Amino acid sequence: MEAFERMLLENKAWATEQTLKEPDYFERLAVDQSPAVLWIGCSDSRVPAEIIVHAQPGEIFVHRNIANQLITTDFNGLSVLQYAVDVLKVRDVIVCGHYNCGGIRAALQKQSARLLIVNKWLKHVKDIYRLHADEIEALGTEEERIGRLVELNVIEQVHNLAHTSIIQQSWAQEHGPTLHGWVYGLRDGLIKELISLPPGSGVSPIYQYVDFSE
Ligand SMILES: [Zn+2]
After folding, report:
1. Molecular function (GO) terms listed (predicted)?
2. Is 55 helix (H, G, I), strand (E, B) or coil?
3. Which of 38, 48, 94, 122 could cross-link with 84 by S-S, CB 3.0 to 4.6 Å?
């Protein structure tokens, strides 16, 4: 049986099981969503947002891409952020990276002409490496260097969030959301907190929108 065929069968079994447990489960979920959290994670198949924090459908608004980035020219990520913040009014935005990230590993290597688009996406991670090259190169093993760039990338993405007009306007007018940077360990399944920026956290003046800070 192909993987997709098994998925369709599993879906039928799951829907039946959920309905047996709670007859109005799907009717209740179909009405609306009010997730408290926006999750920005990596596309890696081993880091499924809902499963690793034991969440249920309806609890997390999810956006995933290679190396969990929030790039200010990416309309996909920005539209998810705007909808989550301005419409769903999420209380927390979590950027969750993970150790052994293939995207981060690739960013530390030479570029492949076969992967021109991926290269462009990972260019932003290379820029983060360049800012912290001395610290990263002082580490003894490749795994340590990748792990540290995983952490620095998460922290940078949290700052990228704080630099958007979406977050700055919401901080000024809604007093939320709080921004979090987490990293997940594939070897132990545990999440480590790296950074937390509550509403109104200091943003360097060059990234401030005058409209929301005066
Ligand atoms: Zn990854």
Report:
1. carbonate dehydratase activity; zinc ion binding
2. coil
3. 38
